[in-house]
Amino acid sequence: MKRPKLIAGNWKMNTTVSEGLKTLDSLLVGLSQMTPKAQVAVAPPFTHLSDFQKKLKGTSICLAAQNVSDKLNGAYTGEVSVFMLKELGVKKVIIAHSERRQYYGETNDSALEKIKVVLKHEIYPIYCVGESLEDRESGHHFEVVEEQITSVLYKLSEEKLPKITIAYEPVWAIGTGKTATPEQADEMHAFIRDVIGKRFGDDLGVQMQILYGGSVNAANAASLLAMPHIDGALVGGASLKPEEFLSIIKAAS
Ligand SMILES: O=C[C@H](O)COP(=O)(O)O
Q: Binding residues for substrate, per the UniProt record (predicted)?
């Protein structure tokens, strides 16, 4: 089955608005000189979304956010709601990134709530899963990822699944320069398809869009993206360097 490819840049907490706009401009110039086969998304900090929405008007780049509240409105200091994102043209949102799990106490339960909220308001989640180094070294990586899938996605109804993108990001490969080998990543992606298939049927397992994330760069993108179960990349550090990000986008073509 031919699944659409997605290359998404997660800018994390990097760049001020003015710096970010310069980076976006370079990216747009590069993209105007190519015909990307993959869908391209950028997830800048919340502060950038309004300006980015204006710049991205009429382009094919999808605007994404890095997080969202599971609450709709009210006294939740510091939170950003799905309505606020929607008004700014956000189409996708990263949910339960490992940094949110590790530093801000996000859990499978909170991920489920957030996924339900955004789907209800037609924003598409990129749900992040992945094991720690300790999990991998002790041979528990499949178990951990299975739990992240079953305790969240199994609780949704079948018709919701095709609206969700999964990002497999082994924590030990994030920002470390240590990438999972294409075989390691592909093996986990195939496993995730099987886990989805067990509950929702093999067709849905095959249909899910699953990205790989963790030190993806211009040098390793082609070999990762060539793997049969890898449908794109969630790129951190390299997405802040337009030339490098463009090379990754090209590698998906
Ligand atoms: O969301 C992106 C991932 O955390 C990967 O980050 P990285 O490419 O800097 O390793």
A: 10-12, 175, 215, 236-237
- Whether residue 1 lies inside any domain: the answer is no
Q: Lowest-confidence range among 2-6, 62-66, 84-88, 125-129? A: 2-6
Which residues are part of the catalytic machinery? 97, 169
Structural domain includes residue 179: yes
State the pTM of this model: 0.97
Residue range(s) defining the domain that contains residue 76: 6-13+38-251
CATH code (residue 211): 3.20.20.70
Q: Which residue has the tokens 């940094």?
A: 99
pLDDT tens digit sequence for 222-238 = 999 999 999 999 999 99
Does residue 182 form part of some domain? yes
3-state DSSP call for residue 156? coil
Quick one: which atom of ligand 1 is closest to the CA of 216? 8
Question: Residue 74 Cα, ligand 1 centroid: separation in angstroms?
Answer: 32
